[in-house]
Amino acid sequence: MLKLGVIGTGWITKQFIDATQEVGGWKLTSVFSRRLEKANDFAKQFKGEAVGYRDLDTFFQEGDFDVVYIASPNSLHFSQARQAIMADKHVIVEKPACSNPSEMKVLIRLLRRKHHLFYFEAARHFHEENFKTIAQQIKKMKTVQGATLTYMKYSSHYDDFLAGKEPNVFSPVFSGGALQDLGVYLVYDAVAWFGVPIRAVYFPHKLRNGIDGKGIAILQYPGFEVTLNFGKTANSYLASEVYGMGETIWMNNAADLQKVELIDKQGNKNDITKAVTTNPMITEVKNFTAVLQSSNSLANKQLMEDWLAVAVQVNRVMYDLRQSAHINFRSDYEFR
Fold first, then answer.
1. Is the model's pLDDT at 299 over the cut of 60?
2. CB-hemisphere CA count at 13 Å for 101?
3. Of the chain's two ends, which shows fewer C-beta atoms within 10 Å, N or C?
4. Total structural domains in the chain?
5. Does the residue 305 lie in any domain?
6. Would residue 239 count as lying in a domain?
7. Quick check: is 302 in a domain?
8. In which domain, by residue range, is 49 found?
9. Which InterPro entries does this chain map to (predicted)?
10. Exposed, middle or buried by CB within 10 Å (0-12, 13-18, 19+), for 278?
């Protein structure tokens, strides 16, 4: 039985815990929130007797858990993951795992000293069967001529921003913005399917505080380009596509892969969609569970390293995109 501690009490944490309960082999034991009442109220939603904490040091020192799931504001991911590793806990951290490559390097160095620990970035769609199906189809293409990937969803927090407030997801202090929140899905797509680009440029629409509300990124590869279209200040219903020599891989949404089609030169459609789970976190939780339950397996350790290598590459591309657009976070200055 894997004992789980969680940092954060939002909807995404609940979805993750629901997934662990559906998969099985997990027990929620510890919940951290800045407000103890909130932590305890959240814990009561689930079976068992999870303990609430409001002090992070106490959470890590006294909490009875093996694995911590971190779903706090982006800027806190690094420090909390570092503290978890030093406390000898396995880590599952929501994307983006870190704000910049400097933070990522620190975590990698710590992990090299703790060979028995596992560290996962919770990029849920990266583990889905439809994601793998698309990767396999791309490999079959004799020539790739590019891709257009879209994920644009209006944020309820944008109304607060327009009212003069500064929610975490729209704050450079908390490493927010469209690229970090939604663009990361598309960067994962591009890096996993095509590799690391030779050049990455971002053209954002900046809000009053300099953060990006939406934008377009161009990733340049030898012989083709990949266009990423994402945002939190508008809704888009455009599909996403990968282009071959006449054939096209079509997907309803590059971050929420509910339907995938292979369209030939004549326009004939072949539905290649794999089964989709009701809870989108089920597949990643299954993968994390299998690895953690056989943590002594060299094959599982290598699997984690493979996933981590992609996370490091995604982190680098995300940083390069931000730098091209002169978008800086508070955390960037802490390593200068």
1. yes
2. 13
3. C
4. 2
5. no
6. yes
7. no
8. 2-121
9. Gfo/Idh/MocA-like_OxRdtase_N, NAD(P)-bd_dom_sf
10. exposed
